[in-house]
Amino acid sequence: MAFKSIELFAGAGGLALGLEQAGFEHIGLVEFDRSAADTLIHNRPSWNVLCEDVEIVAARDLETEFGIKKGELDLLSGGAPCQSFSYAGKRLGLDDVRGTMFYHYATFLHKLQPKMFLFENVRGLLTHDKGRTYETIRNIFNDEGYTIQYQVLNAWDYGVPQKRERLITIGIRNDLVEKCSFNYPAKHDYKPLLKDIELETNPTECGKYSEYKANIFALVPPGGYWRDIDPDIAKEYMKTCWFMGGGRTGILRRLSLEEPSLTVLTTPQMKQTDRCHPLEVRPFSVRENARIQTFPDDWEFQGTIGAKYRQVGNAVPCNLAKEIGLECIKTLEML
After folding, report:
1. Are 254 and 223 in contact (CB under 8 A)?
2. What is the pTM of this model?
3. CB atoms within 10 A of CB 97
4. What's the CA gap between 282 and 85, in Å, rounded?
5. Which residues form the active site (predicted)?
6. What is d(CA 157, CA 319) in angstroms, rounded to the nearest whole number?
7. What is the CA radius of gyration of the chain?
8. For the residues 127-143, what does the mean pLDDT come to?
9. What is the CATH number of domain 3-191+316-333?
10. Exposure letters 159-172 (e unless 16+ CB within 10 A, then b)
């Protein structure tokens, strides 16, 4: 019997695909962005994809909407965008977070009471608003009847050739905690590098540097950054950034085959977070970024090239999602 899940803020499907690979059957996915929803529909025509505002969906009768009774859903998954809460710390329950994306996630939890939930977010949520944001989130999870645990996982430890940290919060409904337990996945022995993925030659979907920028990046060795070129050239390129404090190691950064990718971002080029290709003077292509995020090559992204970069950059790496999903299934199999 397949375990059933619903996913919110599904994006282009990194988390959903990994959970499917682990053995979950998605009975609903909610994604507001048209291009991302089109990607889900294109790759999985059988999935029940709702390209709607999650606020509108959350207001409906969810048991009727998804054909499942309260308490029967195995897993609610997704990660709401990080937002400040105006009443953080006052313990008003759901009213603390009314009007935020998290409120709609909590509404799904309240209405459907799934056996488990998986809430993923950026590591920075731990310290957002001096920790008050995540404290409010944890309090609401507790108030809704869940025992939670949380841990920051680095995708590089789970078969992903990329340094990418995610805060993974797992909740188990209180009436089930005596019968089951959840363990975070064990780290892999081998941590993959960029040399482990296939890089493209003459990619069709790829950002492009200006001639000026390309000429400067041509001077940077693989694994290097602005300190590895003539300081006068670096100073002219960096302009005001030259006088900033810190290492500024993201500027004119060229990756090497002998290292993992830095966190894949939503745009292929920004001055302070450049990731130049190790073999060619260009950004990584859409498909190369997708491979770094461990999407299979037959997963085809829809929309403009900008939309595709954004979908890939926002995704949870599939391999990380699968590892977490396998542990969720072990938990559910105890019931």
Report:
1. yes
2. 0.95
3. 27
4. 40
5. 82
6. 10
7. 21
8. 90
9. 3.40.50.150
10. bbbbbbebbbbbbb
Residue type, 285: S
Q: What is the pLDDT of residues 286-333, one digit of tens each?
A: 999 999 999 999 999 999 999 999 999 999 999 999 999 999 999 999
Overall residue count recorded for the chain in this entry: 335
CA distances, 318 to each of 80, 193, 270, 293, 314 (Å):
18, 16, 25, 7, 12
Contacts of 256 by beta carbon, 8 Å cutoff, 6+ apart = 194, 222, 223, 278
- What's the rounded Cα separation, in Å, for the pair 243 and 255? 24
Name residue, tokens 């294109």.
42
| Parts of the chain belonging to CATH 3.40.50.150 | 3-191+316-333
- Partnered with residue 240 across adjacent β-strands are none
Residue 107: strand, helix, or coil: helix
Residue 264's identity, in one-letter code, is: V
Tens-digit pLDDT profile for residues 15-31? 999 999 999 999 999 99
Is position 82 annotated as part of the catalytic site?
yes
The tokens for 223 are 């694994």
Under CATH, which architecture does the 194-313 domain have? Alpha-Beta Complex (3.90)
